[in-house]
Amino acid sequence: MYAAPYSNRGWITGQIPVNKTDFELKASIPDPPALAARMLRDNLTRDGIKVKGNAIPSRLMIEKKIEDYVPVVTISSPPLKEIIRMLNHESVNLYAETLIKELGKVYRGAGSTDSGKLVVNEFLDSLGVETSGMFIEDGSGLSPQNALSSGSLCSLLYLIKKKGKNFNEFFNSLPEAGKNGTLKNVFRDPVFEGAMRAKSGTILRVKSYAGYITTKSGKELIFCIIVNNFTAPSSKLIAAIEDLLKEVILYE
Q1: Which secondary-structure segment (H or E) carries 201?
Q2: Quick check: pTM over 0.85?
Q3: For 56-99, how does the pLDDT look when each residue is reduced to its tens digit (9 = 90+)?
Q4: Spans of all domains in the chain
């Protein structure tokens, strides 16, 4: 299902599985603030409260230079560690896109992807992470124009562990192998239990995993596997990666 930002129309394409009594379709809301405003107005009207004017989001209020309003309630965001945990557990691309814009807003005064990318690159440079082969086009990694090396990502994960002030929060935000998040249905062999936390990454013909492993001998390792342009079934590729990481865990 597709809809342009801020639009009230969309289109659906694809196939529905056979022999289904129901079918769930998920889609993004093209203008969440406007929907929230309309829902608030409709509920107030339903309860007999008169509402003047149309329901519009703050974005349009700024454009129309509307300043005559009274805040009714302020809802604070969850703590960042909770947002990061949900992002890493479920790969919420919208959260990632919002966070890179927030970085740009906080550190460069402009809530844009381009500003956020500058902040990220400056941070990586300050850590000494090799960025010559790294290209960031968006916050979520969905663009095929994104690129990075497994070596650079391993270096970053190492520095987060060695120097990160909030490493425990970051580590706990990563899914556990075979247990939850995007790793719930993979790495289910008992050898991985309690021994691996990692973030997965997937776009068309690309599969990747990066994170932390503890071997049977107690060694703590950092790994990153990125497979580009694979042609085998995804299940076979994942099985091959599982076999490789099992050898790593069992190696003395």
Answers
A1: strand 196-203
A2: no
A3: 888 888 888 888 888 888 889 999 999 999 999 999 999 999 99
A4: 1-75
